[in-house]
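Regression test case RT-17, inverse folding.

Input:
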């Protein structure tokens, strides 16, 4: 049995992130997506949380647009130009696109970034609970 070494981790840090294109029928074109780093994934997850009166709550508005928020972090110009095509601010209007456009892109971004449906379900559950708690206390 062989075990991972520190050198393996160091090599993984500098290795290219997962990159794949997906055909989007709506556009009849391919879109390039690159997985996020562990830090970027944490920042994405943290972006779903807001702080209010010293407490951390799930921001239901951001959770509702989570697919666009992940997509704008993953969509890149091409296989050779790995710069992001969109900024985080673009997620607002990207979230307004037809679901048929964003669904296949989001599914690929989720796969490349090591996100799971269970993680999204948990955020949505926390968001719903936060919403019902907020309305009950109003």
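Golden output:
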């Amino acid at each position: 049995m062989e075990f991972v070494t520190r050198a393996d981790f160091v090599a993984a840090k500098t290795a290219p992130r997962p990159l794949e294109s997906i055909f989007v029928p709506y556009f009849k074109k391919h879109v390039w997506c690159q997985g996020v780093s562990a830090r970027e994934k944490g920042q994405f997850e943290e972006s779903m949380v807001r702080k209010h009166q010293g407490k951390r709550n799930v921001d239901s508005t951001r959770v509702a647009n989570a697919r666009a928020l992940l997509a704008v972090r993953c969509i890149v110009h091409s296989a050779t130009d790995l710069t992001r095509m969109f900024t985080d601010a673009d997620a607002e209007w990207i979230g307004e696109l037809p679901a048929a456009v964003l669904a296949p892109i989001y599914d690929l971004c989720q796969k490349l970034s090591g996100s799971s449906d269970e993680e999204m379900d948990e955020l949505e559950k926390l968001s719903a609970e936060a919403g019902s708690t907020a309305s009950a206390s109003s």
